[in-house]
What we know:
Elements: E1 6-7, E2 17-23, E3 70-76, E4 85-86, H1 99-102, H2 104-125, H3 133-141, H4 147-150, H5 153-169, E5 185-187, E6 190-192, H6 199-222, H7 226-236, H8 256-263, H9 274-290, H10 296-329, H11 336-354, H12 368-377, H13 390-393, H14 395-413, H15 417-422
Antiparallel strand pairs: 1-4, 2-3, 5-6
Helix pairs in contact: 2-7, 5-6, 6-7, 6-10, 6-11, 7-9, 8-9, 8-10, 9-10, 10-11, 10-14
Amino acid sequence: MYGRRFDMSNEHRGPQRHRFRLAALVTAAIVLGACGGDDGTGGRTDAAADAPRPLDADPARDAPAPDVAVADVTVPDADDRDAPTVRCDALTEYPREGFEERASVELDVLMRFGAWMGRMREAEMSLDVRPTAMELRASFDGGTPSLRSLTSPYYAALIDGWIDAFAAAAGRSFTPADPPPEQGGLWVSWIFDRRGTDLRQAIEKGSFGAMHLRTAAALLSTDGSPQAVDRALALFGARPSFPRDDSASNPERDRYAAQYAKRRDDPSDGTPGLYRRMRERFLVLRGAAMGGEPCREAHRAAVRALLQEWERVLLATVVYYVQDAATKIGGAAPTEMQLASALHGIGEAVGFVHGLRRLDHPDRILTDAQIDELLGLLRSPPGASAEVYRFVTDPAGELSRLTMVARRIGEIYGFSPAEMEGFRTNY
């Protein structure tokens, strides 16, 4: 089940040192200020209150990861006598036995998160379903740990406002207009506020970063145990089997960020896409965690690689949605369904981007300055009134903004032209 972990043979007993080796690809295509913003602050203003507390203060972890990391590290030995050589190799298969118990807290968190979103989806299916703000906020605040406690304070405050707006819009019909109508509501299949923000998507997709990724980053920076990796895997939305399947009939189906990683990975392509790369990242990290303290350096590198790949999953999905929306609104005579679906997709893109704002973990690629740039292009500037409705009231005039968002993300993350083209498809 496992890759090579411990070699106890006499031929590997060195007289002075133990050796360990991490063998895994650690790919980090980071360009245009991945480690800092234009002002030299990383664009993360006022983020101290939101920052997870790392295990140690290691300035080296802010250095860009190499394209290929094959660590072969010699560690001084305090006592040479008949000690084994410690290996930090990637696993070949993720341990399954006991996973449900080890990640029980996170699995419960995601179950409650899904129920919370499910109640909002019910309101999008019928005007007769009208959840109250008190009901929706109780789901956010209830349970141990509460969903609110895991969410960045910055984003939790935004969610409170969107909950109020969702409760006010539920049960009402809506059509975007310029100037906006007095009240939002249900348009085709989605509930928007009066200015065109898809309210459920703002909460749900933003939480993928502000809650799920944030919690995993804080956990992995303070806990080097194998169980912490299992808990992060649950937060990603995958299982040890890595089924690469998001169909409802599969009880271990990919959910949340894992579902979108699967959609960004062409199964016919021999080069691993984002889902397969995330699987490799988890196998490397789990192997390093099993090595304990001697594998600390390998563990730190693996955490960095995993969190950055996770972020790429979210932003590659933004590329999918803005390109899809551009196709729908760019036709000669888009239908109401196409316009509503485009506005919904833009809402997903806004959520994925906005949820990363003020996340001050040391491995984040996207700076707050870059986030604000993207949100401005998406007509959702932080701290100002959104004008997302303009994408459907003036599609010809707004189309170039979507193209600019995709191009900017490609530049920041170094996505190749082939990758950008592949992101147009849900696999």
